[in-house]
Write a structure and sequence with these properties.
The protein starts with a helix and ends in a 7-residue tail after the last helix. Helices cover about 75% and strands about 0% of the residues. The protein is rod-shaped and about 70 Å long. With about 100 residues, it is an all-alpha fold. It has a domain of about 55 residues. About 0% of the residues are buried.
Amino acid sequence: MTSSTYWNKKVKLSGMRSKSSFLRHQILYGYVYDIDYSELREYNAALAKIGNNLNQIAKRMNATGNVYAADVKEVKELMNQVWQTQKSMLSKQPYMKQ
């Protein structure tokens, strides 16, 4: 494999847009990571749904001036979902030594 072919393959695997960006990053930092953001997008979508539910509960509480046990229970469940989702995401992250 020629040097040019080697670098072209590395650039393609990195997902970076250009060879010059890849080489610049390589020179400055000594490494380039290929990161799959699909799980992060799913995580953000789940958090957005939870946030919307919390907003609806807050609006209902502000409109009525009442705090209902069912709303408190739902908020606790939603916060537990946030925690579980966050733990799941963090457990899937690779360990990186500094």
